Amino acid sequence: MATQAAFLAGLSQLAAQPGRDRAVAPARVAVAAVGVGSAKVGVRVGVKAGTAEAKAVAQRRGVRCRASLIEPDGGRLVDLVAPEEGGRRAALRREAAELPHRLRLSRVDKEWVHVLSEGWASPLQGFMREHEFLQALHFNAIRGADGRMVNMSVPIVLSLGDAQRRAIQADGATRVALVDQRDRPIAVLSDIEIYKHNKEERIARTWGTTAPGLPYVEEAITNAGDWLIGGDLEVIEPIKYNDGLDQYRLSPAQLREEFARRNADAVFAFQLRNPVHNGHALLMTDTRKRLLEMGYKNPVLLLHPLGGFTKADDVPLSWRMKQHEKVLEEGVLNPESTVVAIFPSPMHYAGPTEVQWHAKARINAGANFYIVGRDPAGMSHPTEKRDLYDADHGKKVLSMAPGLERLNILPFKVAAYDTKQKKMDFFDPSRKDDFLFISGTKMRTLAKNRENPPDGFMCPGGWKVLVEYYDSLVPSEGSSKLREPVAA
Amino acid sequence: MATQAAFLAGLSQLAAQPGRDRAVAPARVAVAAVGVGSAKVGVRVGVKAGTAEAKAVAQRRGVRCRASLIEPDGGRLVDLVAPEEGGRRAALRREAAELPHRLRLSRVDKEWVHVLSEGWASPLQGFMREHEFLQALHFNAIRGADGRMVNMSVPIVLSLGDAQRRAIQADGATRVALVDQRDRPIAVLSDIEIYKHNKEERIARTWGTTAPGLPYVEEAITNAGDWLIGGDLEVIEPIKYNDGLDQYRLSPAQLREEFARRNADAVFAFQLRNPVHNGHALLMTDTRKRLLEMGYKNPVLLLHPLGGFTKADDVPLSWRMKQHEKVLEEGVLNPESTVVAIFPSPMHYAGPTEVQWHAKARINAGANFYIVGRDPAGMSHPTEKRDLYDADHGKKVLSMAPGLERLNILPFKVAAYDTKQKKMDFFDPSRKDDFLFISGTKMRTLAKNRENPPDGFMCPGGWKVLVEYYDSLVPSEGSSKLREPVAA
Which residue intervals define the domain ATP-sulfurylase PUA-like in the entry (chains A, B) (predicted)? Predict the structure, then answer.
């Protein structure tokens, strides 16, 4: 990618491993605060909120954060990568190679290992045990070690099949190795807990439907094992993809360092999985203006495209990154007040449930403002002719979600193409006939047909990238790249 | 019912309307605390937690409760029945008769009016508006006027069809009358809000499945309107059924009066929708013993059969009440430390979601201990050969539920028939072959065949009631009483 250097000009060199502060053997203490009542009278077992023990637990594992930014969930940013110093990586790699039980990670599993390892899901210390899974499903929030609710709306779980479950339980194993598709050790999961994977219930409670054709379900649930395995995760080394985009994959700790370096006094996050058009840009520029008017001195935008699994008719990450580069190169967004980075999570398309995850993860990366649009993380109903979610539910649910009280929600103002001014502008209902709404489907159709959108819809360089992308598809139409037909 | 007088001997005469303390025009102040962010920066609008305004709101509407019992959710027990004094009932009845828009209540709707009117769902002031509905669906909890989360796991909503929705909105009406099946006015719903009834999403998030055959769904959702209407409820007079059981339908305020009269220092609730066998009785007796050992002086049992809608193969309420009477008459439970009353809610069969509602409602009735069994509110999966819910999830979810922190959960010890001792006893795994598990299906089959269960399984009078019930079905087999075949 020739223009990456220029694109990254606004980003400082980031230390690969910012100052750590962690204990060696966290075991499962941090998740013990909410246990399940046993036969004895009284319910909540484990660490009691507010006690010295709880405070010690909260401090054991993770990165100390600068006080000027919003505090991560649970007080400390979780960091599950073995430290380079002290030989821990080599020891963990040896152990992983020798452990009798090895679970092979799918593409999506590995993305979750990445997400967990860098603390996007703080205070989670690994794949969910059952008490965390149930809280995520029923409450979209988990009670942390300090007794407070942290938001956690999507299950972050690892599945396994029955044969492997039986083998692990027959051995009484407490640690298993996680390996990639080529059997290379990635991590060790310890103090494991195995429980049933009720797929139907998980799907119904996460998506609000069980209709066939949900992209994440087909990719990661339908053919997954009937059991889930939770535990504390320790990752051998930082997850890399070697796809030319790793430099954009800044961890929450690295983002916090960058925001601090820039003396940001407000960080506003914009989650996206589509090309940036001038309506988005207007919104982001306008948001900065509003924050300045509110008295902030240096609001910084985190332009944060999602980098994990997306459905087949979304524009792939590499093309989106090329397009975002052009947007900055051509001055549509100001590199001085913009940080572009990749959010490593897979996409659920779970609407109001998922938007909470998108927001929560950005708190951990230091954002205290979150821009939310119409129908966030939404899609068409897979079997009915309608949107799966009410377009307003995402922002409503987000504004009421437990554990997100500290985050300021910025509802998206609707932008459309103003045919009089020949530019994208905020929709003005008093002269509604002047405005043209250009849907994602319309945009894709234009780009596929090598047609141009109206002047001022998107910067020319960005549009050219889109046209190139659709051109690149023609020879491989019907190949594995396009598992679903692109909507006309 | 000939023996009701004896059965009620342990209950004092209750004042029909215990001391009230309410304002005249509560409007929607109590639900304004969690609004949805508008386009301006900042999210949570409305009454701020902890402010004097919030405190005033919390005190405006409801019954003052004795300090010795657990505080109701929201601080005050909601009471939505128009007071007898001051002519309010007559005025409301006149208004309801004259309002241009009238919604006809189904059987289940009317049960919810009953539930809401007596404050079982405190702090809800009426059928849910959208922000409450969304919080119930996504979080199983609602942020109250004081900023605290109260548990609320099932939507309490009223539906209407599209034609009626259009007529109401065309008129700009803000108040509608609620009438019964014979068009008699029951209540007025004011400051109304109409929003979409996404049935699929409601069902998926409440039940964790969308499989056809869920009893509540078939009774109350499938054929319901495509819109929901929320608002503040004012009920003309206390809801009565005139079925000979109204004397058992004690409101939360009446139950609190009774517990206070008995000087209860602990109240433990037992929710049930089945006949009481000696295993249940053992559990209840044992719980009282354990509470005494913990230092409580006078723990009182609230034996609280569910009285609203149940599925066709459950034993009907009137027969269950006859059976419960026998259990007290024959000394299986001690009337001195037992209050038997009817819980007016309809049954969802929604497992871990519903058990939270069952527990939360009992807090409002003064219970600070809640007994939870295996697979509470569970049933067989409607289309697969398995239980719909994991048998342990109910108690796990209950122990972690937001808003139920003040309630002590008492997990059910497993009782079974000890063939050596010839009585029900707690299961002892060290001599497991001595124990016989008698399922509900087995019990029903025995009763239907006029066979006797093993000695000591149930008191003889109680068993006789069951046999009589199944006898009574024979002539009407296939009639409307049995909408579903009784499982063999």
Answer: 70-237
Q: What is the pLDDT of residue A441?
A: 78
pLDDT at B146: 82
The yes-or-no answer to whether B88-235 and B246-473 have a common fold is no
How many Å apart are CA A36 and CA A42, to the nearest integer? Answer: 10
Shortest CB distance from A39 goes to which of B42, B397, B411? B411
What's the pLDDT tens digit per position in B418-460? 999 999 999 999 999 999 998 877 888 899 899 999 999 999 9
Looking at the DSSP assignment, which residues form a beta bridge with residue B228?
B159, B195
Provide the pLDDT for residue A41. 28
CB distance from B209 to chain A under 8 Å?
yes
Q: What is the pLDDT of residues B131-167, one digit of tens each?
A: 999 999 999 999 987 889 999 999 999 999 999 999 9
Coil vs helix vs strand at B189: strand
As given in the structure block, the two tokens for residue A41 are 């009278």
Q: Is the pLDDT of residue B61 over 80?
A: no
Nearest CA in chain B to A408: B42
Q: Are B159 and B197 contacting, i.e. CB atoms less than 8 angstroms apart?
A: yes
Strand partners, A302: A269, A339
Exposed (0-12), middle (13-18) or buried (19+): which is B328, by Cβ within 10 Å? buried
Whether the CB-CB separation of A36 and B399 falls below 8 Å is answered with: yes
Contact A199/B at CB under 8 A: no
Among candidate residues A220, A202, A105, the one with its CA nearest the CA of residue A153: A202
H-only helix segments in A317-450: 317-329, 351-364, 393-400, 440-448
Tens digit of each residue's pLDDT (9 = 90 or more) over A259-295: 999 999 999 999 999 999 999 999 999 999 999 999 9
Is some CB atom of chain B closer than 8 A to the CB atom of A390?
yes
CB atoms within 10 A of CB B464: 15
Contacts of A133 in chain B (CB under 8 A): none
CATH-assigned architecture of domain B246-473: 3-Layer(aba) Sandwich (3.40)
Tell if the CB–CB gap between B396 and A36 is shorter than 8 Å: yes
Residue A76, Cβ density class (10 Å: 0-12 exposed, 13-18 middle, ≥19 buried): buried
Residues near B97 by beta carbon (within 8 Å), at least 6 away in sequence: B177, B185
Find tokens 């029900």 and name the residue.
B424
Q: Which CATH class, in words, describes the domain spanning A88-235?
A: alpha beta
Best CA proximity match to A223, nearest among A160, A310, A176, A153: A160
pLDDT digits (tens, 9 = 90+) for A417-464: 999 999 999 999 999 999 999 887 788 889 989 999 999 999 999 999
pLDDT at B481 (0 to 100): 40
Look up tokens 């006027």; give the residue. B145
> Does residue A224 belong to the interface with chain B, where contact is any CB pair within 8 Å?
no
Assign B67 a pLDDT band (cuts: 50, 70, 90): low
Residue A352, chain B, CB below 8 Å: the answer is: yes
**Alpha carbon of B382 to those of B31, B39, B200, B214, B389: distances in Å?**
36, 44, 16, 6, 11
